[in-house]
Amino acid sequence: MIKPRFVVGPPGTGKTHTFLLEKYREFFKKYDPDKIVLISHTNVAVSEILNAAMDIPEIKERGYRRKFFEDRICTIHHYCKKKLDRKEVFTEQDNEDFKNLCRLHVAFAYATIGDDPYKDHPFFKFIKASYGHDRTLEEHWHHRDTNTLDYSPYSLIQIQELKVVYEKYKDDNNLYDFADMITKYNDRSDLPEDHKKKIRSDIEVLMVDEAQDTNRPQLRAVFKMAKNVRDDHFYMIGDPDQTIFEWAGSDAHYFHQAAAKPWLELTEGKRCGEAINKFCKQIIAPVWRRYNYNRKWLPVPGIIGNKYELADLQPSLGLEKLLEKIKNTKETFIFAYRGKPSDKRMRKFFEQYGIEYAHIKSSAHVSLKELKCHDEWPSFTEGAPKSLKQIKDFWCYLGSKAIVHGKGTYKFEDWVNQDYTINTLIDGGFLKSQAKEIKFFDLLRKRAKGQDAKQHERRMIYIRKVIKNGFDFDGKIRVKYGNIHQIKGTTFDNVVGDLSIFRRGKREHPHIELRLKYTMFSRGIYDAWVLRSETERSLGEHGSL
Questions:
Q1: pLDDT of 50-61, one tens digit each?
Q2: 58 and 195 share a domain?
Q3: Is 240 in contact with 215 (CB distance < 8 Å)?
Q4: Mean pLDDT of 3-28
Q5: Contact (Cβ atoms closer than 8 angstroms) between residue 361 and residue 474
C-alpha cells in the first residue's frame, strides 16, 4: 500500500492556497489534468479551492471551463458518487422521502423532530454515526454511553428493524445516501461489471485537503483512489488540531501521530496577525502539551490586530468598536458559533443594526438587487432616469399599489435598451400616477410569498436600516455567519466567536472543545471578538485539564 506524504501546519500557513494549489499547478503542467484529483472535506472549502484554481494562468491559457474541474476538485462524496450507478440521493433536504418511510413503518414517526426531520431524527443520527466510526449497529449501540448524541426513544432492536426498511426503500427507489457513496465505492461486489471498470482508479496525482477530517471508511476510499498514483504523488494535507468532526468518525489521534513526523511541516503564517495568532496558541496549548508538540507557528509579519471581549450583543464600548468597523471599513466578518440557537441571536443583531448579512452556505438575506431598488427608487420618483435593467428590477418587487392592473407581467423584450424616467412609465400606462408621490420603495413592495404582514413589516424596517447605513454594490456580502463546522476552510478579516454551548447529555472531551474554539478564531486575520457565553458554561473552559 502506498504511503501518503503528510503535509501539516497550523491554520493559515499556506497548506491549501500555497502548497496545495502550487502543487496542483505544477502537476497540471506535467500530467493529464483528467487524472489529477483534489479532494476536500466540505463544499465550502471545495468552492474556495475551485475559485482559486480557475485563476491559475495555465488553466486560463488552455481555456478549461470550471465544469471540467468540478468532478476532479470536489468532496470525496461527489467523486465516489460519480463512479457509481445510481444518480439520486437520499438527502437531508428531501423530507418527502422521510414521509414515505413513516408510511412504511410507523416507528419512524416516534421521535420528536424539528423542521428538518431527516437531519434531526435520532435513527439517522445513529446510522450516520455508526458508519462514520466504522462500527456495526450493535457495536455502536454499546458505545452509546460515550456518545453525546441522544438516540431515544429507540431500542437496538427497533433501530435494526428500521434499518431493514430504510435499506429496502433505497433499493426500491434507486437511491444512495452519503454513507452509501463511500461504502459502495469501497465494496464493489454488488456493482455491475461496467461500473467496476469505471471505478478502477486511474488517478496519477491525488491530494486530500483537510485530511484530518476523514473517517475510516473515507480513508479506505482515499487509499483505493491512490492505488495507481505516479511517483508517490499522494498527499494528505491538514492540521490534527483542527480535527472537529470526531462525532462523524474522524480520528484526531491518528493524525496527531502522522503529524509527529510529517513529510513537510509549514510554520510561516500567511493569514493570522499577531493578536489572533497569540490567542489561538493560548487556546490550543493544552493539546500541544498532551502530544508533546514543540510546534512553530509564526504570525503574518506587520499585522498586529486586537482581541476584544464582548459581554453580549448589546450596547457597550466593545460593540461600538465592532459596529464602527463593520460600517466604516471594507473588511469581512464571520460570526461563528457552536450551537444552533446562537444563529437566532446573531440574525437578531444584524437586523437590529441594519447590517447586510448572509449565512455561510446561502446567498444574502436580502439580495443586493432588492436593496438597490430601495436605494434607487427615491431619485427615480424625482425624475432621475434609470436603465432598462433597473426598471426590470423594480418590476420584480412592485405590487398592485404601483403597477397598473394587467401590466405586472409585462414583457420587456420589446423595450429599447435605454434610460427611462418615471413620467415615461406613467404616461405609458405602466405605473400609477400616485407612485410618483411615494418616496419609499418599501411602501410599494409587494409581500413576499409565505410572509405574513408582521414578517413583511419587520423585513421592510430592516431594509430601511440597511439603506440608512449605506451599502456597496460590488456584489459581495462582507458579514456572514455559520457554525464552526460550516466555516471550516474559510478566511475572513475578522472573527466574532460566540462561546455559548447548547448541549444535552455528556460534555465533549476538553480537547475537542479546544479544537473547536481554535478552529473558530483561526479563520481571522486582524481582530478577534470573543462573545461571552449566554449559557452556563463557555466553549473550551473546563477549568483544570
A1: 999 999 999 988
A2: yes
A3: no
A4: 92
A5: no
